[in-house]
Amino acid sequence: MAWPGGGWTQLRFDGGLVLPPGVWVAPDGSLLTGDAAWQRASEDPSRFVASPLLLTGETTVVAGVEVAVLDLVAAVLRRVGDEAARVAGVRVGDVRLVVPAGWGPRRRMWLRQAAHRAGLGQPSLVEAPVAVAGQLVAGGARVLVGEFLLVCDFGGGFEATVLRRGPYGFEVLSTLHDPAAGGTRVDELLLERLRKADPGLPDVSEPGGYGVLAAVRAGREELSSRSVVTVVLPDPLPALVVTGQVLESVAGPVLRRAGGLAGEALAAAEVDPAQVAGVFCTGGGAVMPGAVRAVAEGTGLAPTAVEQPGLAAVVGAASATGPATALVPTGPASRGHPGVGSAGTPGESLGLPSVWRVVAGAVPALASLGLLTHFVATAELFNGTRTSRSPYTYLLANWGELAMAAVVALLACLSLGGVLASALAVSGSAARSPGVRVGTGLVAAAVMGVSVAGLYGVGAALFFGMPLNPFLRWSLWPVVPVAVVAVVGSLVAARSGRAPTAGWHGWLAFPVSSVLAASVGMVLLQYSMTASRWPDLVLLLDAAGRVGGLLLGVGMALAVVSGWLPRLLAAAPLAVFCAAVISAPATGVLAVMYVVAVTVWWLRRLWHLVRSPIRAEHHAW
Predict the structure, then answer these.
(1) Residue 239: is its pLDDT beyond 90?
(2) Cβ atoms within 10 Å, residue 135
(3) Structure confidence at residue 384 (pLDDT)
(4) For labeling, which of 106, 284, 549, 597 is most exposed (least CB within 10 Å)?
């Protein structure tokens, strides 16, 4: 709770500084929270819901009775609001809730509804990594405008987020979350290890099980600062001694998964690790032995654990000014739970793409129009005019440039697939699965792209007054393989329940660098062959053609492979080959090669999706 003067105090619940999210449902329908809930859970675990935010659907069954999930979350929030009002003496007017960056509009709206039901009004929502980044800057961290940060949040799960500092704040470029890569999973594995040593320990589904789990969790947290702890279990169970070595062996696989996600988040944002201004570990689990080291191994960078990692996000949210999140739609709240499989998983909700993604999607559209304009401007019509034709009229044109314009237009439309899917989510589409919405948006985008390519051919043919066949052959056929693979990907997304680990926006993001390199290369190549070859310009024009070939080869490499070293190894021979074969007849061949490279990129996307795990409830964003 922050005060107007700038200070803040941490609320206490049942003598502690943390309110567990568990809720115990009494036979009369009343809801218990905090320590009381965990104590009753040890007696009757069938009536206990340990993590309401991880539930799917609008209701859950507790001891044979349906209970609204919204009421369970509201009970915990109400407890916090009541304690804040007791300490302050009045109802707190400005309420801010910290949410994972991966939550989409429907998920956020649902949480707003839970807060309203808890009597907290309409709270502001602050993305956890944005709050942490703001707190770091306020504390003196040097992050210039345009620089990148990686924030790794070790909570009950794990979330890795790449941010870019803009002139008006931090922007999320990519975020990945895995509920099985954080403290909750470590507690479960540690309990399993202890149960193997002492089979008499009860499971969480048995009476006393939740009491043992709470004791194990307290012991795990204490091991962050000590090498050996004694875990005091509920009577009549004997106390257990746990060492830091045992914890590290249990937590090792979980933390390595977290470090791998951190590296994947950088790859999804297409950020070179050398451009990252800092890597920061936050969340209560950041103090676990090996947590910082796992992030360092997964990213190749040197991370830093923030001060008070368990409080960094909430303190940052308290000091944030203005509305924290503008992505939450206004209007009537959606009824019930949005159907989320796990809090903040990458495939959980259909979030709007970042500003960077939208801007990056506009680049292919502009490049496509530029290629088409250059194709029309540099084509030469012989033995005829645009108003009268002789029997021997023919057109000398760079057909490869038309093919490139069509393919890049399709890429621009496919990049809108995520925007269309987000629009379906915000509009409350009946298709609840994000995979279904992504599939629908992708099919619509593919149809739009093929239509635009056809319009390119028809428009150019009408402009020159020539037969349609050659124009449609070079504008439509090149886009067919890419469109087919994209449609197959949409079917896999909609029907398999699989979700890419990098999130749907990252899965759809074709490398903008490839489009720019190939488009500029084709324009330079065509310019070198059509410009007036004055004696003093011959060398310059020849050099422009060679550079254009080099850029085309680089664009192909950027599409076919990922990672700076593989791209460098692939770009060298491709660039040299393309620069060596430049000629008027070769432009069509080079364009077809780029089409093949784009098709390979989409085939790789499809392969990654097929190999991705199936998400609960098909949630994949």
Answers:
(1) no
(2) 25
(3) 58
(4) 284
Closest by CA to 92, choosing from 60, 121, 52, is 121
| pLDDT on residue 324 | 34
Kindly tell me the burial class for residue 368, based on how many C-beta atoms sit within 10 Å of its own C-beta (0-12, 13-18, 19 or more). Answer: buried
Structure token pair of residue 397: 């044109």
Tokens of 565: 């070293």
Residue pair 278/162 in contact by the 8 Å Cβ criterion: no
Sign of the torsion formed by the C-alpha atoms of 189, 194, 199 and 202: negative
Count of CB atoms within 10 A of residue 86's CB? Answer: 9
Q: How far apart are CA 292 and CA 41, in angstroms?
A: 34
Task: Name beta bridge partners: 242.
Answer: 229
Mapped onto helix, strand or coil, the DSSP state of residue 384 is strand
pLDDT in tens, 472-522: 999 999 999 999 998 898 888 777 666 665 566 667 778 888 999 999 999
- 45-97 tens-digit pLDDT: 888 888 888 776 788 888 888 888 889 999 999 999 999 888 888 888 889 99
pLDDT tens digit sequence for 307-354: 888 888 888 888 764 333 333 333 333 323 333 333 333 333 444 455
Residues whose CB is less than 8 angstroms from the CB of residue 410 and which lie 6 or more positions away in sequence, other chains included: 446, 449, 450, 452, 453, 479, 482, 483
Contact 409, 594 (CB under 8 A): no
Over 70: is that where the pLDDT of 8 sits?
yes
At what angle are helices 312-319 and 128-138 packed, to 10 degrees?
A: 80
| Residue reference for tokens 């006393």 | 208
CB 594 within 8 A of CB 601: no
Query: Which H or E run includes 389?
Result: strand 389-396
> What confidence score (pLDDT) does residue 169 get?
82
Cβ-proximal residues to 79 (8 Å cutoff; 6+ apart), any chain: 13, 19, 33, 34
User: 588: buried, middle or exposed (CB in 10 Å: 19+, 13-18, 0-12)?
Assistant: middle
Q: Give the E-state strand segments of 15-156 in sequence order.
A: 23-25, 31-33, 48-49, 59-62, 65-68, 96-99, 124-127, 148-154
Which of 509, 484, 519 lies closest to 590 in space, CA to CA? 519
Residues 553, 578: contact at Cβ < 8 Å? yes
546 φ/ψ angles, rounded to the nearest 5 degrees: -65, -40
Structure tokens at 314: 């909430």
Q: How far apart are CA 589 and CA 602, in angstroms?
A: 20
Selection from 606, 561, 591 nearest residue 406 by Cα: 591
